[in-house]
Amino acid sequence: MTARRPVLLGLGAAVGLALTGLAPVRAQPALPQPLKLLVGFPPGTGPDVVARLLGQKLGELLKGQVAVDNRTGAGGQIAANAVAKAPADGGTLLLGEVGSIAIAPPAFSKLPYDPARELAVLSEVVRSDFLLVVPTTSPAQSVADFVKAARAKADRTNIATFGAGTPGHFGAEMFAEQAGGFKIEPIHYRATGDAVTAIVAGDVQGAFVSTALGVAQIKGGKMRALATTAAQRSPLLPDVPTFTEAGLPKVDFSAWFAVFVPAATPAAVQDLLATQVAAAVRAPEVRQKLVDAGFTVTGTSRAEAERMVRAEAPRWAAVVKASGFKGD
After folding, report:
1. DSSP helix, strand, coil percent of the chain (3-state; round to 5)
2. Which residue, 148, 205, 225, 296, has fewest beta-carbon neighbours within 10 Å?
3. Which of 256, 266, 297, 265 is nearest to 280 (CA)?
4. Where are the transmembrane segments (predicted)?
5. Which domains does the chain have, with CATH numbers?
6. Is the peptide bond preceding residue 34 cis, with omega within 30 degrees of 0?
7. Could you report the per-residue pLDDT of 66-99, keeping only the tens digit for each?
8. How far is 152 from 173, CA to CA, in rounded Å?
9. What's the rounded mean pLDDT across residues 241-258?
10. CA Rg, the chain, in Å?
11. d(CA 219, CA 211)
């Protein structure tokens, strides 16, 4: 009887705790330190701004450090591939975006990673709508002016992009198709700065740039915005109409940014990171800075993010197919 008494007492204590709602909570999974957050675009760009604001707050919430790693090139594909092949221990995260996750698979037959198989999404953190912009020397003062001129051209209309397979590239294809099928010639620039320079200099007829990127250029008189792909006018650019107002409601694409980890990362680690990532971008001070930078803050749950990514894949596959684009 004496030998069994500690066991019985232990069982009684456990039952008592459970009945009173005080059952022990499972320990939080340990994470490698420091965490790395990869972003596929250069310092100073919109995605980099998101990564740094997110990384700083996430480090505070996790009581650790998050180092932002800019793996630039190929429209975010280099960073996505690096995270897809990284150890699945929660130590390496990706700030992925629509281009490298939803557009690249149907656009590039030799893509070195498979987002659906190798990456798990934790949370969509922000969205950025797009602006159709033209050089300030352009005679186009509206979408109707731009479309009329494009239809009248004997050759194609040059549209700058920030790389083949990016949202601005296929957004331009979508715009041309919705506006009656005029022909465009995408001019793919390797660097964001080069594309901006080309627009400002008038080397191209137009471009789709994110609101986050375009606001400063437009307010500085470097380029003119004709319309936004957002459902409503941006409070940062209240004089710029929506494409719906311009009579083209199906030109409604946006760039979403979400945090991913390698697919084999343990579920408990994914749950922890997903909760803290969403909390980081929803923190009032972070949210305001992101809004001021031109982003819409989302901070979704894992389940919501998974549904979003699944829905975006076939949508963009259809756009890529209709364009006839072959990346390799």
Report:
1. 45, 20, 35
2. 148
3. 297
4. none
5. 35-128+254-323 (3.40.190.150), 129-228 (3.40.190.10)
6. yes
7. 999 999 988 899 999 999 999 999 999 999 999 9
8. 18
9. 95
10. 23
11. 12
For residue 13 the two structure tokens come to: 């204590």
Tell me the CB-side half-sphere exposure of residue 65, using CA atoms within 13 A: 5
Per-residue pLDDT tens over the stretch 265-299: 999 999 999 999 999 999 999 999 999 998 999 99
> Does position 11 have pLDDT exceeding 80, yes or no?
no
Could you write out the DSSP letters of every residue in 222-279? SEEEEEESSSS--TTSTTSPBTTTTT-TT---EEEEEEEEETTS-HHHHHHHHHHHHH
Buried b (16+ CB within 10 A) or exposed e, 15-36: eeeeeeeeeeeeeeeebeeebb
Would you say residue 27 has pLDDT above 80? no
State the pairing for strand pair 66-70/35-39.
Answer: parallel
Residues 6+ apart with CB under 8 A from 253: 130, 167, 170, 171, 174, 229
Residue type, 208: F
Backbone angles phi, psi at 33, to 5 degrees: -130, 140
CA dist 89 and 98 (Å) reads 24
